């Protein structure tokens, strides 16, 4: 504090004469002031300069963690409050002292502002007020440095801070001594500043002590009960370099030259992901996620009774970055008003009024310096808020992902994967994008205040009319803001519904095509889009209204201001008018941005509410399962592995009957427990209760040891086979090869062209059902867990492979493990130590095999059904006795099968011989392993093999965006007719706006008292007419842009979705759904809401820039040469920038799809992930994927700032040149009014030029979304749905005869041939069984029949008609199928059975009863309208299969195909289904593909496939009579495996007693 205010009060009159000129007066004032307190000013200024330099230097460390701390950063924990710091009383006292001094200085500054205002801003008080502001800013910086110490959790305060506190103590001591001396000579009362100095003295003593000690008082507290989430900082793939931004110098940070190396690479070649450096540690997703997680948990701990606020958690996590960017924002705002403040002085100078020598050059230098500061601070401001947005997005993405893994199953059914993807793709993006409007809420009031101060100087009290008009303009937007919020809420809800349906259709595309339902579900999507489009139209039209209001608002404000001046008699000179107009132009930008602020606040609030609601959803019960060690088993012996006591569980708590009830179970370590029962009995639910997946109503579940889980529906990740088996565990070659051998996968690895490095398609699309199950089993075995939970893993493999898997896995590798397995294979039950029989959710029987047989009831019924199926095969004894002889004969004749499964078709001894040969062959290759089957000899081979993979990297264009993309977009709506009208409207708007400003400058007198060129009424009337005329044309432009955008977006959406639905199945097999969803969600949102306004903004910026150039050239034509040079440099620089920015934008779009895909995949396999305890690894993968996305994203927005800075600097130089020309010529050379108008427009030159280049670049970046969507409008289509000239008759096929002639099929040109010349005939009305080993081509044959894959040679005739000559829908609608993977759609049972609504309720009930679901549905309240959740997850797999049977019964096709249709049901239900099919399809051709031999043994004909060829085809009995028949071997294996398993179990395993 200084004593200068008291001094000023006593000596102001002596200091200077008020009638002196400006600069001598200031010199006089400063000299007197320095004589009193020169040390205070110097010390404060030195500290400010040092503080500013220090903050700039530490710019990179001002995010979350300083770099020196980040190097040793370890706090990556599952529980968010793992290692925290406590702020001791010492630190709190220091902080309070700094805030206390900050408030004192604020009081002094306000007091001096009041005094200066009362003195009408005379020289001395104005200067003293400025010095008070310097002191205030100094203490703001000190307080920020104290907060920075807390942020860095530093043990010592910064050296700069400590030096300042010591200096301040010395300064205070000097001031207090001076005050005592002055007080002794003056009897008057002490002024406020003197009392403030006295009040600050004790505080300065304490701060001096703090400075000498140096310690901050921050202490760390470590909680030992937390466990790490991520154990290491694994490097991300790609570049090993870390961004230079991390350790850039102050000059490099200010000029953004740290980006130069990357841009230089982008000019030389198209950027690849490996060229982009990694993010700094504090900018990575892990850091942001942990920060948000910590603050979220702290909020929960602070108020356990109320849910935490997501908004508050975000603010607490990222307020430091926001404060840092706010400093630059404030500096930019102040700098931007220097020009309008000085325009009046400049016009007066040009008019001949000069107050001091060289005033023109000084003013030009002030203009230039202000613009320079404005440019530098603006770029740092924008870069800072971009980084905030990146941090918020990364944290929320990880937050949503983490929540998705912990979501309860009931809530999981209410939030579909498509909806959750929208949370991540749209809501998180929108919240992150709000960072652009973060400071507008306080910048706008500050700009209004500064504008009023300048206006008060120019127009006096008329500025209050300006304030009223401004407030009314803002308040008038409230109804529109509320309307926009409602529209946005409805729009997001509609988008959720569309994305949910889109995701479901993509996931179930195979069944849609098989059933010829594409048009039906496409129409459903189009209807949902129409609802979304309705709200989109309303939102865009409301935005057009807002645009009109807020383009008209600045004109309204200016008209009211000038009108008030005329009414009050305030003279309007050209200088005052131009100063006001310049102020309005600066104020116009925030006023124009205000509707965007309101709109984005509404959108962000909606998104925040949606995310908050999602985060509040119930999670899996934490106490559902108690995990303990065996020694800690309470009330039980230490050898217990699983204990369930009084368990009651339910999937749906709204249903009165629980899913499982009265479950009491004890499983000892090492026991084998089998679970059996009819479909829907609760078998899978029993495993779920052990995993903790099903909500527990009562009881206690205790599990001792680690678990591994194999689901009934295979869950396979996209990626390499090896990665699926390792599942995050380190590679152990010996163990890995053993697992492959045990799971019968060795031969598969040889068969795959890339071995275990083969890329698996989405959901394991390029694997057979048996291969997927065996990979699942291998994944479980490799984990070496204590407890294994297997949910019917043998149903998807053939009889022999299932037997071998059971022997080698269950009875071999898992013999010492605790095992609970669900099975429908009764022949495996004798090997169990304990068998549980379930019915209606209760364990009705428990015991060993023989005990349960003697007890009768349900278990006896299951066994009897199995025995009846075996007896039904009617195999003669001599055939069974001669089976081994036939095998020997086959070996002698050299007919030994070549495939791995066929090796297993031999006897056990033969199998051992083959394995020994394989082992010998492996050892002869010097230790070569299966994993090295795909090792590459050179890079070219690797590239070639990569091209042959099914899953390919996402396609992207390179180089500039094709003009065809622009042209197709511009002409999509009304063939481009709206474009000229839009351009004309914008041009007229700009001309009218320039004319209105020119009119006010031209008609007003140059100096006060001069002669006006128009009367006051004419002056204001013409201005209002021109201003509001321009507002009407801008409204027309906004309305036309909205119409144009709506029409174009709808056309692109429909074209894309129709092309996707027409694409062949190969496209869906080789394209992850995330890629398609990314285009349907993110890219479509850009096309809906962004691109039309980007194009309109570019046109607007172009016309405005031309207008500015025209006005400036009208006054100083010489600068036209500079404009030409500037244009050439701008174009070159834009091309230099775009070479990199274009590729960065494409990489951003490509890298976002894996995040969405990984999330959807994780949600689908959440049960498996949790069953293996792999949540942390998947969270880590999600964080790494986001970092891979953030790398191009970060450099992309930094490159934009790089370009804008250079554009603005160049335009600032042009503006400075214009100013230099104006002041260099003699006064009177230029019309002051026109020169002032040129300066007024020139003040915006830098913004307009950078905005023009920026809008051009952003337009090209955003148009990439159109490019990506158009990629999916040119996908090669399937054959026509209907060929009008070649349509079959309505009763075709009349008989159902199928004739295949030399059929050869491959899935794609990159894959090998699957079917090799298949030739056979299926007679009409016959029952055909198709059997063969896993991978023999059975499913491919069925796909060829449906033309899911087109043959490369041969043909298929149905009733003599070549199916390739008719439309796909004419074919598929006439065929019925019950697929291997049962698919249900979200909705009702009725909609799933009869989606085309062709049947009555009576017919539906009849079909339901025949497929054994009638009683189940009648027990439900809604009957046929009972709910079916996403993927049908609220129904068991067996029940889903029965629903598919119901569809077939309703369709009544002449040809019916059963593709492993009964694999997931028990033997008894299988028998019922077969009898139903025989009765209902007695005159139909039925083709049955099955692994269960009883299912096909009573067929009229049996086709045996081997390696894609017809091995055998004849009546079953004839095939059984052949000694070398492969069918005989399959039958023998099936009938014999029960006894062989039982014998092996009794001989090689010691049973353990279990209790129930």
Description:
The protein is built from 55 helices and 26 strands. The chain is elongated, with a radius of gyration of 40 Å. Helix 36 packs antiparallel against helix 37 and helix 36 (978-1003) crosses helix 44. Among the domains are: 4-62 and 89-221, no CATH class; 244-584 and 996-1271, ABC transporter transmembrane region fold, CATH 1.20.1560.10. The longest helix has 51 residues, at 518-568. By secondary structure, the chain is α/β, with parallel strands linked by helices. The strands form seven sheets. The protein has a six-stranded mixed β-sheet, sandwiched between helices.
Explain the layout of strands and helices.
Blueprint lengths: L3 H12 L6 H36 L9 H4 L12 E5 L1 H30 L4 H29 L7 H27 L6 H22 L4 E5 L27 H6 L4 H9 L16 H18 L7 H27 L1 H13 L8 H48 L2 H6 L2 H17 L6 H20 L2 H14 L2 H30 L1 H6 L3 H51 L5 H42 L10 E3 L11 E10 L10 E9 L3 E6 L5 H9 L4 E9 L2 E4 L8 E2 H6 L6 H10 L3 H6 L7 E2 L8 H15 L3 E5 L7 H15 L4 E5 L11 E6 L2 E6 L1 H7 L1 H16 L4 H5 L1 H10 L7 H5 L3 H17 L14 H9 L15 H8 L7 H26 L12 H47 L2 H6 L2 H17 L1 H25 L4 H45 L1 H6 L3 H50 L7 H11 L2 H27 L26 E9 L6 E10 L4 E6 L5 H8 L7 E6 L2 E2 L5 H5 L2 E4 L8 E2 H5 L7 H10 L3 H5 L8 E2 L8 H15 L3 E5 L7 H14 L4 E5 L3 H5 L3 E6 L2 E6 L1 H6 ...
Which CATH architecture of the domain at 244-584 and 996-1271 would you pick?
Up-down Bundle
Provide mean pLDDT, rounded.
76
Shape: elongated
Oligomer: single chain
The CATH superfamily of the domain at 244-584 and 996-1271 appears as ABC transporter type 1, transmembrane domain
The level 1 CATH classification of the domain at 244-584 and 996-1271 is Mainly Alpha
Please give the share of residues in helix: 55-70%
If helices are DSSP runs of H or I spanning 4 or more residues, what is the number of helices?
55
Report the sheet-strand fraction: 5-15%
Please state how the strands of the largest beta sheet are arranged side by side. Answer: 8-11-12-6-13-14
CATH topology of the domain at 244-584 and 996-1271: ABC transporter transmembrane region fold
What radius of gyration results from the CA coordinates? 40 Å
From the N-terminal CA to the C-terminal CA, the straight-line distance is 84 Å
Any low-confidence stretches, pLDDT <50, length ≥5? 1-38, 60-83, 221-238, 876-947, 1548-1556
Output the structural class.
Answer: alpha/beta
Q: How many strands, what sense, and barrel or not for the largest sheet?
A: 6 strands, mixed
Number of strands: 26
């Amino acid at each position: 504090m200084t004593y200068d205010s008291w001094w000023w009060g006593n000596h102001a009159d002596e200091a200077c004469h008020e009638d002196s000129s400006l600069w001598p007066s200031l010199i006089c004032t400063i000299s007197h002031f320095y004589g009193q307190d020169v040390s205070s000013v110097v010390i404060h200024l030195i500290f400010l300069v040092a503080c500013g330099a220090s903050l700039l230097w530490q710019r990179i460390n001002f995010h979350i963690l300083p770099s020196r701390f980040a190097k040793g950063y370890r706090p990556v924990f599952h529980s968010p409050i793992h290692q925290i710091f406590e702020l001791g009383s010492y630190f709190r006292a220091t902080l309070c002292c700094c805030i206390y001094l900050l408030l004192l200085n604020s009081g002094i500054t306000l007091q001096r502002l009041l005094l200066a205002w009362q003195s009408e801003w005379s020289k001395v008080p104005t200067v003293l007020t400025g010095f008070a502001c310097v002191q205030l800013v100094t203490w703001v910086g000190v307080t920020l440095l104290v907060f920075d110490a807390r942020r860095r959790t530093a043990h010592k305060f910064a050296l700069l801070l400590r030096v300042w506190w010591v200096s301040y103590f010395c300064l205070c001591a000097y001031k207090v001594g001076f005050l005592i001396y002055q007080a002794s000579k003056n009897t008057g009362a002490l002024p406020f500043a003197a009392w403030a100095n006295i009040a600050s003295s004790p505080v300065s003593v304490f701060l001096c002590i703090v400075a000498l000690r140096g310690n901050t008082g921050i202490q760390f507290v470590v909680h030992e009960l937390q466990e790490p989430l991520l154990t290491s900082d694994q490097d991300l793939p790609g570049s090993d370099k870390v961004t230079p931004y991390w350790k850039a110098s102050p000059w490099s940070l200010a000029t953004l030259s740290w980006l130069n190396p990357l841009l230089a690479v982008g000019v030389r070649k198209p950027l690849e992901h490996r060229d982009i450096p990694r993010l700094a540690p504090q900018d990575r997703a892990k850091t942001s996620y942990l920060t948000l997680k910590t603050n979220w948990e702290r909020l929960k701990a602070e108020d356990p009774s109320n849910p935490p606020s997501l908004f508050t958690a975000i603010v607490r996590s990222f307020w430091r970055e926001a404060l840092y960017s706010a400093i630059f924002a404030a500096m930019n705002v102040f700098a931007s008003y220097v020009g309008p403040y000085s325009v009046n002085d400049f016009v007066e100078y040009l008019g001949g009024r000069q107050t001091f020598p060289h005033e023109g050059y000084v003013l030009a230098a002030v203009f230039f310096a202000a613009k320079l500061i404005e440019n530098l601070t603006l770029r740092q401001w924008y870069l800072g808020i971009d980084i905030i947005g990146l941090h918020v997005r990364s944290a929320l993405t990880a937050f949503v992902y983490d929540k998705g893994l912990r979501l309860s199953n009931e809530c999981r059914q209410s939030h579909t994967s498509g909806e959750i993807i929208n949370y991540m793709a749209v809501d998180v993006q929108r919240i992150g994008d709000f960072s652009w409007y973060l400071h507008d809420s306080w910048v706008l009031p500050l700009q209004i205040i500064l504008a009023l101060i300048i206006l008060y100087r120019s127009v006096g009290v008329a500025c209050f009319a300006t304030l009223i008009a401004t407030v009314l303009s803002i308040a008038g937007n409230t109804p529109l803001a509320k309307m926009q919020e409602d529209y946005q809420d409805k729009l997001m809800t509609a988008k959720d519904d569309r994305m949910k349906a889109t995701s479901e259709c993509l996931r179930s595309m195979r069944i849609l095509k098989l059933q010829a339902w594409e048009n039906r579900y496409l129409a459903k999507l189009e209807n949902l889009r129409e609802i979304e489009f309705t709200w989109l139209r309303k939102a865009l039209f409301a935005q057009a209204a807002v645009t009109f209001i807020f383009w008209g608002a600045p004109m309204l404000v200016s008209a009211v201001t000038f009108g008030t001046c005329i009414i009050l008699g305030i003279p309007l000179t050209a200088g005052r008018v131009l100063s006001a107009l310049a102020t309005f132009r600066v104020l116009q930008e925030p006023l124009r941005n205000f509707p965007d602020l309101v709109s984005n606040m509404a959108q962000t609030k909606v998104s925040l509410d949606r995310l908050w609601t999602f985060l509040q959803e119930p999670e899996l019960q934490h106490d559902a399962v108690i995990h303990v060690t065996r020694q800690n088993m309470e009330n039980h012996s230490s050898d217990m592995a699983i204990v369930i006591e009084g368990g009651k569980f339910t999937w749906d708590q709204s249903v009165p009957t629980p899913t499982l009830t009265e479950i009491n179970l004890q499983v000892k370590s090492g026991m084998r427990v089998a679970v059996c029962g009819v479909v829907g009995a609760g078998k899978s639910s029993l495993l779920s209760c052990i995993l903790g997946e099903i909500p527990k109503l009562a009881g206690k579940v205790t599990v001792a040891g680690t678990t591994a889980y194999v689901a009934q529906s295979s869950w396979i990740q996209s990626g390499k086979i090896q990665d699926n088996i390792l599942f995050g565990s380190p590679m152990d070659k010996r163990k890995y090869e053993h697992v492959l051998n045990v799971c019968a996968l060795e031969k598969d690895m040889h068969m795959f062209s890339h071995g275990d490095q083969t890329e698996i398609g989405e959901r394991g699309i390029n694997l057979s059902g048996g291969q997927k199950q065996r990979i699942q089993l291998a994944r479980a075995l490799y984990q070496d867990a204590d407890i294994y939970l297997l949910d019917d893993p043998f149903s998807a493999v053939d009889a022999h492979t299932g037997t071998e898997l059971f022997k080698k896995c269950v009875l071999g590798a898992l013999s010492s493990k605790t095992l609970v397995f669900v099975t429908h294979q009764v022949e495996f039950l004798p090997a169990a130590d304990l068998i549980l029989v379930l019915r209606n959710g209760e364990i009705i029987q428990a015991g060993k095999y023989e005990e349960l047989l003697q007890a009768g009831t349900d278990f006896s019924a299951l066994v009897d059904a199995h025995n009846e199926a075996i007896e039904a095969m009617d195999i003669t004894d001599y055939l069974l006795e001669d089976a081994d002889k036939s095998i020997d004969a086959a070996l002698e004749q050299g007919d030994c099968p070549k495939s791995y499964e066929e090796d297993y078709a031999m006897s056990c001894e033969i199998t051992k011989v083959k394995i020994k040969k394989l082992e010998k062959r492996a050892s002869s290759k010097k230790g070569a392993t299966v994993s090295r089957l795909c090792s590459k000899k050179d890079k070219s081979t690797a590239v070639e093999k990569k091209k042959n993979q099914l899953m390919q990297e996402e396609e992207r264009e390179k180089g500039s965006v094709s003009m065809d993309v622009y042209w197709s977009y511009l002409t999509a709506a009304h063939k481009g007719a709206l474009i000229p009208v839009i351009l004309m409207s914008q041009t007229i708007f700009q001309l009218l706006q320039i004319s209105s400003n020119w009119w006010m400058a031209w008609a007003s007198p140059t100096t006060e008292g001069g002669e006006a060129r128009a009367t006051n009424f004419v002056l204001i009337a013409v201005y209002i007419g021109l201003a509001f005329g321009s507002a009407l044309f801008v409204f027309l432009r906004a309305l036309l842009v909205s119409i144009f955008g709506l029409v174009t977006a709808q056309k692109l959406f429909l074209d894309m979705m129709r092309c996707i639905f027409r694409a062949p199945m190969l496209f869906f097999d080789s394209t992850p759904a995330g890629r398609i969803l990314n285009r349907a969600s993110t890219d479509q949102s850009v096309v809906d809401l962004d691109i039309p306004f980007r194009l309109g903004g570019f046109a607007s910026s172009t016309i405005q820039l031309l207008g500015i150039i025209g006005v400036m050239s009208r006054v100083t034509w010489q600068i036209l040469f500079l404009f030409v040079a500037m244009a050439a440099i701008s174009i070159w620089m834009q091309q230099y920038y775009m070479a990199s920015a274009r590729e960065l934008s494409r990489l951003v779009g490509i890298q976002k799809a894996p995040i969405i895909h990984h999330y959807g995949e994780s949600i689908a396999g959440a049960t498996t992930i949790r069953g293996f305890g792999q949540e942390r690894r998947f969270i880590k993968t999600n964080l790494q994927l986001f970092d891979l996305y953030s790398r191009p994203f970060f450099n992309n927005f930094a490159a934009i700032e790089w370009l804008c800075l250079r554009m603005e600097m160049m335009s600032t130089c042009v503006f400075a040149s214009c100013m230099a020309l104006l002041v260099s010529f003699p006064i009177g050379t230029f019309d002051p009014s026109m020169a002032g108008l040129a300066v007024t427009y020139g003040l915006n030159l830098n913004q307009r030029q950078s905005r023009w280049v920026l809008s051009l670049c952003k337009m090209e970046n955003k148009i990439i979304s159109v490019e990506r969507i158009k990629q999916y409008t040119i996908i090669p289509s399937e054959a026509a749905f209907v060929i009008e000239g070649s349509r079959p008759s309505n009763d075709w096929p009349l008989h159902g005869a199928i004739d295949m002639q030399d059929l050869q099929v491959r899935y794609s040109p990159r894959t090998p041939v699957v079917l090799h010349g298949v030739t056979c005939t299926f007679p009409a009305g016959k029952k055909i069984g198709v059997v063969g080993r896993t991978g023999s081509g059975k499913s491919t044959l069925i796909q060829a029949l449906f033309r899911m894959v087109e043959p490369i040679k041969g043909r298929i005739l149905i009733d003599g008609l070549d199916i390739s000559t008719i439309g796909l829908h004419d074919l598929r609608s006439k065929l019925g199928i019950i697929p291997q993977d049962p698919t249900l759609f979200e909705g009702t049972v009725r909609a799933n059975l009869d989606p085309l609504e062709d049947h009555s309720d009576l017919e539906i009930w009849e079909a339901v009863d025949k497929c054994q679901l009638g009683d189940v549905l009648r027990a439900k309240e809604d009957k046929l309208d009972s709910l079916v959740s996403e993927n049908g997850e609220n129904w068991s797999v067996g029940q889903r299969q029965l629903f598919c049977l119901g569809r077939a019964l309703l369709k009544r096709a002449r040809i019916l195909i059963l593709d492993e249709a009964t694999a997931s049901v028990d033997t008894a239900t299988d028998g019922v289904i077969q009898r139903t099919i025989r009765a209902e399809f007695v005159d139909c051709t039925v083709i049955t593909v099955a692994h269960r031999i009883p299912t096909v043994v009573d067929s009229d004909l049996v086709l045996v496939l081997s390696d894609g060829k017809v091995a055998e085809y004849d009546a079953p009995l004839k095939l059984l009579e052949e000694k070398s028949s492969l069918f005989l071997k399959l039958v023998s294996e099936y009938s014999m495996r029960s006894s062989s398993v039982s014998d092996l179990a009794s001989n090689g395993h010691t049973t353990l007693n279990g209790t129930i």
